[in-house]
Design a protein that fits this description.
single chain; 61 residues; mainly alpha
Length: 61
Amino acid sequence: MFGIGIPELLIILVIVLIIFGAGKLPEIGNALGKGIRNFKKATREPDEIDVTPQNKKVDPK
């Protein structure tokens, strides 16, 4: 996968720890998980039906 191995992933993890700190990592992981879950849900749902009213001419009586 893009030539990323274990050593590269560890370096990325260390950089993320330095930038965000250990306290923010659970919040970031939670937000990322919710985003992925919502994306999967949106791709599985059928498209919504358009219910906007159409301009129809009504014959006056």
